[in-house]
Amino acid sequence: MKNKFSRMFRNVNPAILIIIAILVVNKMLNSSLSVGDWLYTQILLLPGIIIGLTFHEAAHGFVSYWLGDPTPKMQGRLTLNPLSHIDPIGFLALFFAGFGWGQPVQIDPRYYKHRRRDELLVALAGVVTNFIIAFAASLILKLMADSMGIGIMYGMGQIIFSIVYYIMTINIMLMVFNLIPVPPLDGFNILTQIFKLDRYSWYYTLYNNGFIILMVLILFNITDMILDPGIIFFTNLFFS
């Protein structure tokens, strides 16, 4: 496992690491929390991060397998074991910088009976799964509030409530983030299948440079213009 992680770090574009480092430093400098409070909050975030990334990527694998593609199974991706789906850089970015990604599931569309439709279903699988988890977490929060009353403000009740709340918000964030139409995010793949973008000459140039474009959008807080309203919208929707 150590060698696997080492290879992942070596294969990452240095420009991406620099951008992530800038974002981490910027977030820490602008944080009003003490080191202790920040660490406590991050620990509460961990279950949401692990669940969100793991279920998102596993969903891609399971749907692709159900549609006839054996690739995810051969690569050991048909599991809910986080170690099979967590990308070290993506995990650390989500933990420290507030955005992140899992280890992408490799698929082989040649096995699909209806290629464009099935690729669309696989692309949708991750974000739909995040939506379901977030919605389920919101129901648990409502149940806790109704049954525990003021008890959710103290002790273990507060800790559990906070963990479930972060599970909900992180899964909303992952869903909205992945719907941004920039490669390699699911939103771009969804648009590709709907509008057949891969028939245009500029498609592969955009796809090959998509990650750098995405990092620049994050660096200049452009993605926040989508994430913040999206998180507020779905949070309000679940509790309306």
Question: What tags apply to this protein structure?
Answer:
single chain, mainly alpha
Quick rundown:
The protein has 240 residues and is mostly helical. The protein has helices at 2-10, 14-30, 35-66, 71-74, 88-97, 115-148, 155-178, 186-195, 203-208, 210-219, 224-239.
- Beta-strand percentage range: under 5%
Unreliable spans are 1-9
SS elements, strand count: 0
The radius of gyration computed from the alpha-carbon positions, rounded to a whole number of angstroms, is: 19 Å
Mean pLDDT: 88
**Which structural class is indicated by helix and strand composition?**
mainly alpha
Specify the overall morphology. globular
N/C terminus separation:
45 Å
Order of helices and strands: HHHHHHHHHHH
* Annotation field: number of helices: 11
Largest sheet: none
- Helix content, binned percent: over 70%
Q: What is the secondary structure topology, with strand pairs?
A:
Elements: H1 2-10, H2 14-30, H3 35-66, H4 71-74, H5 88-97, H6 115-148, H7 155-178, H8 186-195, H9 203-208, H10 210-219, H11 224-239
Helix pairs in contact: 2-5, 2-10, 3-5, 3-6, 3-7, 6-7, 6-8, 7-11
Mind explaining what this structure looks like?
The protein is mostly helical and 240 residues long. The protein is built from eleven helices and no strands. The chain has helices spanning 2-10, 14-30, 35-66, 71-74, 88-97, 115-148, 155-178, 186-195, 203-208, 210-219, 224-239. Mean pLDDT is 88; it is low at 1-9.
